[in-house]
Amino acid sequence: MLKVSQPIKKILVPLISILLGFLVGAIVMLIFSYSPIQAYTSMFQGALGSMSGIGETLRQATPLIFTALGFSVAYSAGFFNIGMSGQALAGWVASVWVALAYPNLPTYLLLPLAIIVGALAGGLIGAIPGVLRAFFGTSEVIVTIMLNYVVLYTSTYLLQNVMPKSFRSSTDSTQTISAHASLRMGWLQNIFGGSRINAGLFLAIIAIIIFWIMMKKTTLGFEIRSVGMNPFASEYAGMSSKKTIILSMVISGVLSGLGGVVEGLGTYQNFFTQTSSLSIGFDGMSVALLGGGSALGILLASLLFSILKIGGLGMQTGAGVPFEIVNIVIAAIIFFVAIDYVIGLLFKQKKATGTNAGAKPEQVIHQPKGGSEI
After folding, report:
1. What are the CB-based long-range contacts (under 8 Å, 24+) for 167-174?
2. Contact in structure between 252 and 126 (CB atoms under 8 Å)
3. Cβ(283)–Cβ(84) under 8 Å?
4. Which CA distances in Å does 52 have to 44, 167, 194, 308?
5. What backbone torsions phi and psi does residue 168 show, to the nearest 5 degrees?
6. CA distance 210 to 322
């Protein structure tokens, strides 16, 4: 075992998880007579080999940053928010609806209005499991999973039966939003070879900064983390765990809703019938776990997942490797992150100096839900 400090261990464990994930993918390719070297070369060339590829990689990473930040806020409070797909979808529908309802408003009014309404729609969906958890002890896991389906089918109903016919180009798709509500910026697209990169990237960077400040430098962030570690001790210290639970879920929903907003106003410029829950919600969970819940970690993990997603298409065309191999690599990475305790056994933590030398932070019991889980 190598002796490393705790910060170095936190970096090495996810890195080894990533490498092991790529190794598993390579083994699968060899079993089916594909060349791992050619496949991974094609992957990185497709994602990073041109300005257009880089633009699409950054574009793909943008909503993942939002949903991962949303998951991290809830997770820090001790809750497992699996409803980011529904919250993002609510933000997508609401923002596009506003954009289509007021197409002639000036950009400086319409664009912020559409973004804010989309974020609030996501926050509203996030508030539901928060309120149920705070006042009735309902499992947020079950509620958020079910809400994904509620929002999914409600969005289809709204598109086909509630939206004015003038908003729709067909029964399954809306009209394209006006340029006044678009997040696309011509100069930015020109830099990145005509890709669909948009101003949502800048919003994501701002969200990362705000997330870091909120969680590390504010009283609200301290309360969220305190409730996550021990809600009973937090109550004893004078914190309102109910208020914190609801706030953390609302903030989580707002961030996830923004992920849907950048899809609607930036990537696709409209809304169309979804046949399944948005993948950015579940991918955001994986990004947050791989990034360790930190701002920088989420940024790097979202870029990695985006490279895998965008580069996977290049792997298909360049090396003839099925895209499903990419999903195997992603699943393997998540698996090794999930068993980070086993990987962590490769390293021996250096003994701390001072009065707390004998303490072992990794052995602290994390009891976020009334003692029912450890």
Report:
1. 167/97, 167/100, 167/101, 169/270, 172/272, 172/273, 173/270, 173/271, 173/272, 173/273, 174/96, 174/100, 174/270, 174/271, 174/272
2. yes
3. no
4. 13, 31, 6, 16
5. -100, 140
6. 39
Record the pTM: 0.89
Residues 124, 137: Cα–Cα separation, whole Å: 19
For residue 370, is it left (φ>0), alpha (ψ between -120 and 50) or beta?
A: left
Alpha helices in the chain (DSSP H): 6-31, 36-48, 51-76, 84-101, 107-136, 140-157, 186-191, 200-217, 219-229, 231-236, 241-262, 279-290, 295-319, 324-338, 340-344
Question: From residue 15, how far is each of 289, 334, 338 by CA, in Å?
Answer: 13, 12, 13
DSSP tag of 180: G
pLDDT digits (tens, 9 = 90+) for 289-299: 888 889 999 99
Of 325, 355, 246, 341, which Cα lies nearest the Cα of 35? Answer: 325
Q: How far apart are CA 56 and CA 309, in angstroms?
A: 10
Instruction: Count CB atoms within 10 A of the CB of residue 250.
Output: 22
Q: Dihedral angle at the C-alpha atoms of 20, 21, 26, 27, nearest 10 degrees?
A: 70
Residue 105: closest CA among 206, 180, 17, 20: 180
One-letter amino acid identity for 141? V
Distance of alpha carbon 87 from alpha carbon 144, whole angstroms: 9
> Residue 255 corresponds to which tokens in the numbers above?
């961030």
Percent of the chain with pLDDT over 70: 89
State the residue for tokens 């932070």: 361
Contact at 8 Å (CB) between 57 and 47?
Answer: yes
pLDDT at residue number 241? 85
Cα–Cα distance measured from residue 150 to residue 6, given in angstroms and rounded to the nearest whole number: 42
Region for 19 from its dihedrals, namely left if φ exceeds 0, alpha if ψ lies in -120 to 50, beta otherwise: alpha
Segment 117-147, tens digit of pLDDT:
999 999 999 999 999 999 998 999 999 999 9
- Record the tokens describing residue 123, joined without a space: 């926050």
CA 204, 205, 209, 210 torsion-angle sign: negative
